[in-house]
Write a structure and sequence with these properties.
- By secondary structure, this protein is an alpha/beta fold.
- It has 2 domains: 153 residues, P-loop containing nucleotide triphosphate hydrolases (Rossmann fold); 67 residues, no CATH class.
- Helices cover 32% and strands 26% of the residues.
- A 6-stranded mixed sheet has the order 6-7-8-3-9-10, with helices on both faces. A 4-stranded antiparallel sheet has the order 2-1-4-5, covered by helices on one side.
- It is globular.
Length: 228
């Protein structure tokens, strides 16, 4: 589903964020990306949905050569992925239903299709009863559930998450991780950057550790492996 071949990323200020990355992530895997602050985790994640472009090397995502993708095709790529952020990125003037539906409206699905699918994913994240609420009427955990529903509504094969529990309390974080686990169990490939040691050490998925822009560890059923 995801492959990086000799990928380098150097920013305009001369900082080498990633150096010679070679990695493969297969369909149905659940992968944590861990490492110290400034190690290159966010760049690693952003390259997958083309928020950043590699300076050198080749990246394939779901069969698409992202490194050579023309800018005008980037929205199409992102519509084939689900992306979840730490700060939710919900549209404040839209209801829960409208926030999730928006992702289907941009690809011109019918109103009937939209209503059916939106209610399905809101039921999955246990927020069907709050479809008419606005983001500011929800807790942080509920807002993240809406963000996950929006990421899932177009049935992506890959879900990319950048610190999705970073702004949540421990109990809510575990609820969100249980949801991610269920999503992965249904067949969706998940790649998640996180600083949450307890979650990584308890769930024991594949762990890719990034240090100084390089892959330091790649372990199946791995552990976090860093001090706070």
């Amino acid at each position: 589903m995801i492959e990086m071949q000799d990928v380098w990323k150097t920013y305009p200020n001369g900082v080498n964020a990633l150096t010679g990355i070679d990695i493969q992530i297969s369909k149905g895997e659940f992968v944590y990306v861990v490492g110290p602050s400034g190690a290159g985790k966010s760049t690693f994640i952003k390259l997958m949905y083309r928020e950043e472009k590699p300076t050198k090397g080749t990246i394939f995502v779901n069969g698409t050569n992202v490194s050579e993708l023309k800018n005008r095709y980037t929205p199409k790529l992102r519509r084939s992925l689900g992306v979840v952020f730490q700060d939710f990125k919900l549209l404040p003037r839209l209801t829960v239903y409208e926030n999730v539906a928006f992702a289907m409206e941009v690809i011109e699905k019918s109103k009937r299709e939209i209503k059916k699918r939106v209610m399905e994913v809101l039921d999955l994240v246990k927020l069907k009863h709050k479809a008419r609420f606005f983001p500011n009427e929800l807790s942080g955990g509920e807002q993240q559930r809406v963000a996950i529903a929006r990421a899932l509504v177009n049935s992506p094969g890959i879900l990319i998450a950048d610190e999705p529990t970073g702004n949540l309390d421990p109990e809510t974080s575990w609820e969100i991780m249980k949801l991610f686990d269920d999503i992965n169990y249904s067949g969706t490939t998940i790649v998640m950057a996180t600083h949450n040691r307890e979650i990584v050490n308890t769930m024991r998925k594949r762990v890719i550790a990034v240090e100084n822009g390089k892959i330091a560890r790649d372990q199946h059923r791995g552990e976090y492996g860093y001090e706070d």
